[in-house]
Amino acid sequence: MTQPCPFCSLSLDNVVASSTHSLAIRDAYPVSEGHSLVVPKVHVLSLVHLPGTAQSDLLRLAFKVRQDLQAELSPDGFTIGMNDGEAAGQTVPHAHIHVIPRWVGDVPDPRGGIRWVLPEKAAYWVDQRKAQGDSPES
Q1: pLDDT of 124-134, one tens digit each?
Q2: Which pLDDT value is given to residue 77?
Q3: Rounded to whole angstroms, how far apart are CA atoms 38 and 123?
């Protein structure tokens, strides 16, 4: 028996924002304070399966959540993104966007951001220096 989709059976108590086609909740396993998920109200595996109006609505709600988190927590930045497909790390088979507040110093070096999903390719600026013959200290 398959597990029920956790996003299709959300308690309205967990909703922090909503729109016509989307809901926002705090992540159950946050990587930072305020880490939120913006979820389409219809069950789809990927955002590409939503009509354009629902995609636009979802993105507008993600930006509203970002704005609300900025006012509430004053982070220094945000990581906003999604894992689209199992190979990309999607663990809940219902499309969603992560809105993750970030602070200076939350990781030693944030350069490369989401590129760190493939660590050997993340620090592209190091490879550029090698190709140009620069020393790492440059």
Answers
A1: 888 665 556 65
A2: 97
A3: 29
